[in-house]
Design goal:
The complex is a heterodimer of chains A (about 250) and B (about 300).
Chain A (H helix, E strand, L loop, with lengths): L1 H24 L4 E5 L3 E4 L6 E9 L9 E7 L2 E12 L3 E14 L2 E5 L3 H4 L2 H6 L11 E3 L3 H13 L3 E3 L5 E3 L3 E8 L6 E11 L2 E14 L1 H12 L1 H22 L4
Parallel strand pairs in A: 2-13, 7-9
Antiparallel strand pairs in A: 1-3, 3-11, 4-7, 4-12, 5-6, 6-8, 10-11, 12-13
Helix pairs in contact in A: 5-6
Chain B lengths: L1 E4 L4 E4 H18 L4 H10 L4 H25 L5 H28 L2 H30 L21 E4 L4 E4 L1 H17 L4 H12 L6 H24 L4 H22 L4 H24 L6 E5 L2
The chains are: A alpha+beta (about 250), B mainly alpha (about 300).
Chain lengths: ~250, ~300
C-alpha cells in the first residue's frame, strides 16, 4: 500500500512537471492514468484502493470542464429471490429474477454527480449512474427485484455511486480513489474517464486494471477449479493429518 | 485478523473461526460427539454460504474424528466388517445426498432444506435424548428391570445374514446398510458426521456390543465424511480447505480440554445437557424459518 502511495506521488509529480510539453504534443484534451495496473488478492486481502488521476488542457471545476470517472468489474450471472410465507408459517424462497450480466463492481463519481453534468438521454445512453445500468432479466418482472439487487450490491460496497467526488488540484489536475472492498471479484476492470464540457462528453479515456488472486489463495482456488479430484483428496488428507497432529500436540496428561 | 477464504470468496476474521472451532471442539470433547451439528449452523450464522458451510463442515469432521478413531483402533474396538457394511450404505447415501444438494442449489432452496433438515433431525434427537436421560435420572437409585441384550424382532427374518464377531451379532446386512445410507444422506445435506444419531442406532436398532459402538461409528463417520468431501469438491466445488483448517486448529485444542472436563460429569447429566443443546440449536433454526424475514429479497450468484 505504501509502495503504491509513493508510486502515485512520483507519478503525479512527473505528470505535473512534464505536463506542459506533453499536453501540447497531443491533441487529446484529457490524459488519465491509474496508480496500479494490478490489484493482488492475497490470503490476507481485506480490500484495496486504486487512484485514478489525470489532467486536462483547460481549467476544471465550477464554470469550466467537469470530469466523470466510471469503473466496471467483470460481469456475473445473479439471481434475486423473494421470500414468501408458505401457509403463512414458513418462509421459503419464492419467485426469482435472473440477471444474466451483473457487473461485479461498479463505481461512478465525478466533480459533480453525473445527473447534474449531462442531459438525461445522454446519461442513460452511456450507463452513467446506478439507475442507468442496463440490467436485462428473465423470470419475475416486478421492479422490486431490480431494486433489491441494487440495494444488496450497494450495501456490500461493490456498487458505489458518488461516494467521494473527484478532487481537483490547481484547476488542471484531478484524482479520485476507487474503493475496492474485500469481496471484489477477480478479472479485468474497465475504467473510463470522461471530460464533460458544456453538458457534452468531449473526450474519453479508457483504462484497465486487473484484480488477480495471488499466492496461497490463488493456488488453492485454481487447484480446486482445475483438478477437483486432486483437491478433494488433499482436503481429506489435510483434515485427517491436522486432526491427528492436533491430538498429539494438545494431548493432556 | 482477516483472512480471505479462497472458495467461499470472502474475508472472515481468522480469530473468530478459530474461536468457533475451539468452542465446538470443547463441547464435542465434553459430550463425546463430533460437533458437526453445531458447527454448520454457526458457520451459516456468520455469513458463510450454506454450500460451503456444509461441505467444509463435513471436511472438518474428518479431522475432528480421526484421532478418536485411531485410539479406538489401537484398543481393538473397531468392527471393520460392520464398518464396511455401514459404509456401503453410507457411500450410496452420500452420492445421492450430493445430487440432492446440487438439485436444491439449482432450485435456490439450499438454505431452506439445510435448515429444515436441522430442525427435524436435531429436534427429534434432542427431544429423545432429554426424555431418555430424565427417565434415567428418575430411575436412578431405584432397582430397575434388567434390559434384554437386544431385541429379537423383524430384522432377524431378513436375508443376507453374516456374522459380525466383534459386535457379537449374526444378522442381515440390510438394517446396517439402511442406517449407513440414512447417515450418508444426512452427512451430505447437513455437513455432519452423524455420530450423534449413529451411536444410538447401533445400540438400540442393531443391538451391537457397546464396547465397539464408538470405534465403529467413528470408522463410518470418517469414511463417509471423506466421501462427502470428495464428492462436494468434484461436483459442487464448495470445500474451502482454509476454512476447514482454521476450524480444526481451534477444534482439536478445544476437544482435548473438553474431554478432560467431561470426565467429571455424570452420564445422565451429560446426556441431558447435550440433549438441551441439540434442542436449542433446532429451535433457533426453526425460529429463523418462521419469523418474518428482515430481508424479503436475497441475491445470489447463479450457478
Amino acid at each position: 500500500m505504501r509502495g503504491a502511495a509513493r508510486l502515485l506521488r512520483t507519478t503525479l509529480l512527473a505528470a505535473l512537471l512534464g505536463w506542459a510539453g506533453l499536453a501540447r504534443a497531443q491533441d487529446a484534451a484529457l490524459v488519465a492514468a491509474l496508480s496500479q495496473a494490478q490489484v493482488e488478492v492475497t490470503t490476507g486481502f481485506s480490500g484495496a484502493g486504486l487512484m485514478v488521476f489525470g489532467s486536462t488542457d483547460q481549467p476544471i471545476g465550477p464554470g469550466g470542464d467537469e470530469i466523470l470517472v466510471l469503473a466496471r468489474g467483470p460481469t456475473r450471472p445473479m439471481v434475486i429471490r423473494r421470500k414468501i410465507a408458505i401457509a403463512g408459517l414458513i418462509w421459503v424462497n419464492g419467485p426469482a429474477a435472473r440477471f444474466a450480466a451483473v457487473p461485479g463492481y461498479y463505481m461512478i463519481t465525478g466533480t459533480r454527480p453525473a445527473w447534474q453534468l449531462l442531459p438525461e438521454p445522454e446519461r442513460q445512453a452511456n450507463g452513467l449512474g446506478l439507475d442507468a445500468l442496463p440490467l436485462d432479466s428473465t423470470g419475475a418482472r416486478a421492479p422490486a427485484f431490480r431494486r433489491a439487487l441494487l440495494e444488496q450490491e450497494t450495501a456490500s460496497g461493490l456498487w458505489v455511486e458518488d461516494q467521494t467526488p473527484v478532487v481537483i488540484e490547481g484547476n488542471r489536475l484531478f484524482h479520485v480513489r476507487l474503493p475496492l472492498p474485500a469481496t471484489v471479484p477477480t478479472g479485468v476492470y474497465k475504467v473510463e474517464v470522461l471530460l464533460v464540457r458544456s453538458r457534452r462528453i468531449v473526450a474519453r479515456q479508457p483504462l484497465t486494471f486487473r484484480v488477480d488472486r495471488v499466492g496461497g489463495a490463488d493456488r488453492i482456488a485454481s487447484v480446486a477449479d482445475d483438478q477437483p479430484l486432486v483437491y478433494g483428496i488433499i482436503c481429506v488428507l489435510a483434515a485427517g493429518l491436522a486432526g491427528w497432529l492436533g491430538s498429539v500436540v494438545f494431548r493432556r496428561g | 485478523m482477516q483472512v480471505y477464504l479462497p472458495i467461499a470468496e470472502m474475508s472472515v476474521d481468522a480469530v473468530l473461526l478459530i474461536g468457533i472451532g475451539f468452542g465446538v471442539g470443547w463441547l464435542s470433547g465434553l459430550f463425546g460427539v463430533g460437533g458437526g451439528f453445531l458447527l454448520t449452523p454457526l458457520l451459516l450464522l456468520i455469513g458463510i454460504p450454506a454450500p460451503v458451510a456444509v461441505a467444509s463442515g463435513a471436511n472438518q469432521t474428518i479431522g475432528a474424528s480421526v484421532s478418536g478413531l485411531m485410539a479406538q483402533w489401537r484398543r481393538g474396538n473397531v468392527d471393520f466388517r460392520m464398518g464396511f457394511v455401514l459404509f456401503a450404505g453410507g457411500l450410496l447415501g452420500s452420492v445421492l445426498g450430493v445430487q440432492l444438494f446440487a438439485l436444491l442449489r439449482r432450485l435456490g432452496q439450499v438454505d431452506l432444506a439445510v435448515s429444515l433438515f436441522y430442525v427435524v433431525v436435531l429436534g427429534t434427537v434432542g427431544a429423545l435424548m432429554v426424555m431418555e436421560s430424565v427417565r434415567a435420572m428418575r430411575r436412578r437409585g431405584r432397582p430397575g428391570g434388567r434390559r434384554k441384550l437386544h431385541e429379537h424382532g423383524w430384522a432377524h427374518g431378513l436375508p443376507f445374514k453374516i456374522r459380525f464377531r466383534k459386535s457379537r451379532l449374526y444378522m442381515s446386512v440390510i438394517p446396517p446398510m439402511l442406517i449407513g445410507f440414512a447417515i450418508g444422506l444426512l452427512s451430505a445435506v447437513m455437513g455432519v458426521g452423524g455420530g450423534f444419531m449413529l451411536v444410538p442406532a447401533m445400540i438400540y436398532l442393531l443391538g451391537m456390543h457397546t464396547a465397539v459402538v464408538i470405534g465403529t461409528s467413528l470408522f463410518q463417520v470418517v469414511l463417509v465424511t471423506a466421501m462427502v468431501t470428495l464428492l462436494a469438491a468434484i461436483q459442487l466445488g464448495t470445500v474451502d480447505i482454509l476454512l476447514t483448517l482454521l476450524l480444526l486448529l481451534g477444534g482439536v485444542a478445544g476437544a482435548q480440554f473438553g474431554a478432560a472436563m467431561g470426565g467429571k460429569l455424570r452420564g445422565e447429566e451429560t446426556r441431558a445437557l447435550l440433549g438441551l443443546l441439540v434442542l436449542a440449536v433446532a429451535l433457533g433454526l426453526l425460529w429463523d424459518l418462521v419469523r418474518p424475514p428482515v430481508q424479503l429479497f436475497s441475491a445470489q450468484r447463479e450457478y
